[in-house]
Specification:
With about 425 residues, this protein is mainly alpha-helical. It has helices spanning about 1-20, 25-35, 40-50, 55-65, 65-70, 70-95, 115-130, 135-155, 160-185, 200-215, 225-235, 255-260, 270-290, 295-300, 300-310, 315-320, 325-335, 350-355, 365-370, 375-395, 400-405, 425-430. It has two domains: about 1-185, no CATH class; about 200-405, no CATH class. It is about 65% helix and about 0% strand.
Length: about 425
């Protein structure tokens, strides 16, 4: 009964603050007071503290507990995601203005509502401690303290009004109360995965590869994924995908089939999407290693092979920018390297990968000039052509723009001289030569 009263009271107070309409006099006074006390050290500290309310930090911590807490840890991840999704619904329904952009010390765009970072800090740290079996009073005390610290940091950075911070804190307490009630229900036990100490090497390599993402400013984090998400919203609204530009000027450069595939991304909260994308990319390295690096796996083991992939420059760059390349490489590897594939399915992986991004189509000429692979080359063209046709038809408002302009506009692509471009053309450009 007390838990229900606490949750309802916190939710009611949060709702009253969100529905206030205009900033309160206390909001403006506190902003002016904080603005007069700010400095470079305080700004750096506030930015670091705000990360305590980031899903990029909390989701991996909760996911790691799956190995020791099983079902409760899995539920905790789902409950945190549900809380963030609810916050996004609130933002769409009751948008509020942010403080003056001229006073803002951290990236933020669009409207605001109850502080999502403060809410995430309360729910995330509260769930983490609950799963670990910490007594209830310490759970609420620690989670509340985390929410206060994160909220104060966001107010200091002028991303939110003080009342938004308090609303986020209260909303987090209400969500945590509901989440703890769900966790207390009887759930079937989840069998814990078998453990090999070598996976600690993989975990360390994953931290090494993922840490730069956490420390990157939100508006610069996983830039390619920001392109996918923004283009997905354009595809869903029926506007021209190839006219879309991110706030930093990056366009969507992929064929229409890719735009159809990414359209559901627009329905996922950005913070959650970034976490899922990063974790999904790391997970894909496991089957990729088993298929493409099978001799290496036999020699040193799967955990070490995946760890070596994670610390490699291409994979770290892929994670930092939130790219799709690992999935495409896996599709190509499954198609070309997996033994015993039937003729009916030959070409599916390279074909679908080429329909998403043109680069894998480089295998097609090789197949046609290699006698044993010509049938596979024809199948690849049919798979790629079929998927591309589906994309053109379903994305028809944008398809003419792609066919007549975007597909031929080389200015839409990145700088070929960038060190990350390991192609022959990139090497020649870095050497001072100018190939066609």
């Amino acid at each position: 009964m007390r838990r229900a009263v606490l949750g309802l009271t916190a939710a009611g107070l949060a709702g009253a603050l969100v529905l206030r309409g205009e900033p309160l006099p206390l909001d403006r006074w506190s902003l002016e007071a904080l603005a007069g006390q700010r400095g470079p050290v305080g700004t750096a500290v506030a930015g670091a503290v705000a990360l305590l309310g980031s899903g990029m930090l909390l989701y991996p911590l909760l996911a790691a507990l799956v190995f020791v807490r099983g079902t409760r840890a899995v539920l905790a991840v789902a409950l945190l995601a549900a809380a963030q999704l609810g916050h996004d619904v609130l933002l769409a329904g009751v948008p509020l203005e942010r403080p003056d952009p001229g006073l803002r010390l951290a990236a933020a765009s669009g409207a605001a509502t109850a502080s999502g970072h403060a809410m995430t800090a309360v729910v995330g740290w509260g769930l983490l401690l609950t799963v670990l079996g910490v007594p209830r009073r310490w759970v609420y005390a620690t989670a509340g303290l985390a929410g206060v610290l994160v909220g104060a940091a966001r107010a200091y950075l002028a991303v939110h009004w003080l009342s938004d911070v308090v609303a986020g804190l209260l909303l987090g307490l209400a969500a945590l109360t509901v989440a703890r009630w769900v966790l207390d229900r009887p759930w079937p036990a989840l069998r814990r995965p078998a453990w090999d100490w070598k996976w600690l090497l993989t975990a360390g390599a994953a931290v090494f590869a993922l840490a730069p993402i956490v420390w990157t400013a939100p508006d610069q984090r996983m830039k390619d994924l920001l392109v996918y998400a923004g283009s997905a919203a354009a595809a869903g609204s029926g506007t021209d995908v190839y006219a879309y530009r991110t706030p930093f000027g990056m366009p969507f450069t992929y064929p229409p089939f890719a735009a159809i595939l990414v359209e559901p991304l627009s329905r996922v909260p950005l913070g959650l999407l970034q976490v899922l994308w990063a974790l999904g990319t790391v997970a894909l390295l496991i089957p990729l290693a088993q298929v493409a690096l099978e001799p290496v796996v036999r020699r040193v083991g799967l955990p070490v092979t995946v760890a070596l992939l994670l610390i490699s420059s291409p994979v770290r760059s892929h994670l930092r920018f939130g790219q799709v390349g690992v999935l495409l490489v896996l599709l190509v590897a499954l198609d070309l390297l997996r033994p015993g594939i039937s003729r009916r399915w030959q070409g599916w992986g390279v074909g679908l990968a080429a329909a998403v991004k043109l680069t894998p189509a480089v295998y097609v000429p090789w197949m046609f000039v290699t006698a044993p692979l010509r049938r596979r080359g024809l199948s690849t063209v049919l798979w790629a052509g079929g998927a591309t046709l589906v994309g053109l038809l379903l994305l028809w408002p944008s398809s003419p723009s792609y066919l007549l302009r975007a597909a031929w506009d080389t200015d839409r692509f990145g700088d070929n001289a960038w060190p990350g471009n390991q192609s022959v053309r990139g090497a020649l450009l870095r050497a001072g030569l100018s190939p066609l």
